[in-house]
Amino acid sequence: MSRAKVFKLIMQSQRKTRSSKVIPVVNSEESKPTLDLSQFKSKPKKTLPSSVIKQQIKKEEGDIDIESKPSTSKTAKAEQVVTKKEKIIENKPSTSKTTKTKREHIKVEYDEEVTGTSPKKISKSMPNNWEKVLENLRQMRKNFDAPVDTMGCDKCSDDAASPEVIRYQALLSLMLSSQTKDQVTHAAMLRLREHGCTVDNILATSDEDLGKLIIPVGFWKSKVKYIKKTTEILKQQYNGDVPRTVEDLCKLSGVGPKMAHLCMKTAWGQITGIGVDTHVHRISNRLGWVNSKTPEETRKALEGWLPFDLWSEVNHLLVGFGQQVCLPIKPQCLSCLNRDLCPYGKKIKK
Ligand code: SF4
């Protein structure tokens, strides 16, 4: 084939290829592609009620709490951070006047141990009418005829004994008085005194004999062990005397804060705290003076507002009042002078 013929064939082939491509020609308005703008219109946002948002946040927090193990997933970590941010944002005080809500008063308490004779006040918030309530308590207790007045722990020591022995007997009577009526404690102390209630004599007494002497005080078996252990410590570390600080007293077997503060008052004549037993705890809560779950919480709350010069009196007043009027079961609210001031008494039908 000649070169000219080859060239002709190539040109024919290229022409065929070009003619097979179709180029659309737009001639009319109808054929123009139309753009649907509606799809770009912003859709109205769905606003969830704040309660639902809070529930969602709570649920998220709960989920995190349940899975206490730290997640290794980056996504999970990011979600946690977002949740925290949301929470922080929600807790920020709103600057808008319309959404501003009244903040709940939060009482800040300091767990400050009382060590001196003039401790600092922790809080100034006092319950309403507390002075009137106290005056009524004094009025109802004016005869001083409750068991605590004649057979309380401060009435159990032998006044004729040496100061060290008086202090030791004061401590023992407090140890026996836990979960025990004053009458039973007082009778047990009289038997111990007759037996010889000194550090050396109690150490020389067998556990069995000591048990027989103190029965029927509550938990007498445990108390025998505590008394023996504590008496050994007094002999070895305190030259047979009673420690002179709340801290050292609390280190003794079977001695807690309540007992330590009462011992400081009875044995050493120092007021270091309010002795809160079951009566003081119960009545303080009924009167609305405190809102606490344990006697120790009650002690701290009372010491937060009650003037220091009343700390000694209030224990004695309330213990006797609890023995005679504000009984654990069926308190005699109808005859109580505080009935109209006491939240518990107000509920009792007249
Ligand atoms: S009104 Fe009743 S509960 Fe209140 S202090 Fe008096 S006896 Fe106790």
Automatic annotation (TrEMBL):
Lineage: superkingdom: Eukaryota
Keywords recorded for this protein, A-Z: 4Fe-4S, DNA damage, DNA repair, Glycosidase, Hydrolase, Iron, Iron-sulfur, Lyase, Metal-binding, Mitochondrion, Nucleus, Transit peptide
One term under GO cellular component: nucleus
GO molecular function: 4 iron, 4 sulfur cluster binding; class I DNA-(apurinic or apyrimidinic site) endonuclease activity; DNA binding; metal ion binding; oxidized pyrimidine nucleobase lesion DNA N-glycosylase activity
Subcellular location per the Swiss-Prot or TrEMBL entry: Nucleus; Mitochondrion
Pfam families: HHH, HhH-GPD
Catalytic activity: 2'-deoxyribonucleotide-(2'-deoxyribose 5'-phosphate)-2'-deoxyribonucleotide-DNA = a 3'-end 2'-deoxyribonucleotide-(2,3-dehydro-2,3-deoxyribose 5'-phosphate)-DNA + a 5'-end 5'-phospho-2'-deoxyribonucleoside-DNA + H(+)
EC number assigned by the record: 3.2.2.-, 4.2.99.18
A single GO BP: nucleotide-excision repair
UniProt xrefs under SUPFAM superfamilies: DNA-glycosylase
Needed co-factor(s): [4Fe-4S] cluster
Annotated stretches, region: Disordered: 21-52, 59-78
Domain called HhH-GPD: residue spans: 176-324
InterPro entries assigned to the protein according to its UniProt record, in alphabetical order: DNA_glycosylase (IPR011257), Endonuclease-III-like_CS2 (IPR004036), Endonuclease3_FeS-loop_motif (IPR003651), HhH-GPD_domain (IPR003265), HhH_base_excis_C (IPR023170), HhH_motif (IPR000445), NTH1 (IPR030841)
Gene3D superfamilies: Helix-hairpin-Helix base-excision DNA repair enzymes (C-terminal) (1.10.1670.10), Hypothetical protein, domain 2 (1.10.340.30)
PANTHER family linked to this entry: ENDONUCLEASE III-LIKE PROTEIN 1
Similarity comment: Belongs to the Nth/MutY family.
Physiological role: Bifunctional DNA N-glycosylase with associated apurinic/apyrimidinic (AP) lyase function that catalyzes the first step in base excision repair (BER), the primary repair pathway for the repair of oxidative DNA damage. The DNA N-glycosylase activity releases the damaged DNA base from DNA by cleaving the N-glycosidic bond, leaving an AP site. The AP lyase activity cleaves the phosphodiester bond 3' to the AP site by a beta-elimination. Primarily recognizes and repairs oxidative base damage of pyrimidines.
Name of this chain's protein: Endonuclease III homolog
